[in-house]
Specification:
single chain; HIT family, subunit A; binds adenosine monophosphate; binds zinc ion; 5-stranded antiparallel beta sheet; alpha+beta
Length: 114
């Protein structure tokens, strides 16, 4: 989608601080990190929210979580732990309408979230 911020990162029009990329996903550092490590993993295909997920996306979503595991290892936070979050729509606090998996770590998380 031409007016989507994260699609512009996939196309290269906007250059984020990329930590991992393959054929299916792009992972980059969040501009407003909520912890010492805060990476966003996005599918290269535009999917607006979790509500738009279809059966055909099942493998892609699996790849996003496998990428989270990879990033946790790369950032040396696998053993201590980290949090993965996908926000959906207004009540979920979604601000960018291209699905993204937050991977946050490097500090103790609290529960429940605000
Ligand atoms: P969400 O609220 O789940 O939609 O998360 C959107 C995230 O995108 C927020 O954590 C923002 O800090 C992050 N963000 C917004 N613009 C950029 C950008 N240009 N580069 C990196 N992260 C961004
Ligand atoms: Zn998009």
């Amino acid at each position: 989608m031409s007016d989507c911020l994260f699609c512009k990162m996939v196309s290269g029009e906007i250059k984020p601080d990329v930590v991992y990329e393959d054929e299916h996903v792009l992972a980059f550092r969040d501009i407003n990190p909520q912890g010492p490590v805060h990476v966003l993993i996005i599918p290269k295909e535009h999917i607006s929210t979790l509500n738009e997920l279809e059966e055909e996306h099942a493998e892609l979503m699996g790849r996003m979580f496998l990428t989270a595991k990879k990033i946790a290892e790369m950032e040396n936070m696998a053993e201590n732990g980290y949090r993965t979050v996908i926000n959906c729509n207004r009540h979920g606090g979604q601000e960018v309408y291209h699905i993204h998996l937050h991977v946050i770590g490097g500090r103790q998380m609290t529960w429940p979230p605000g």
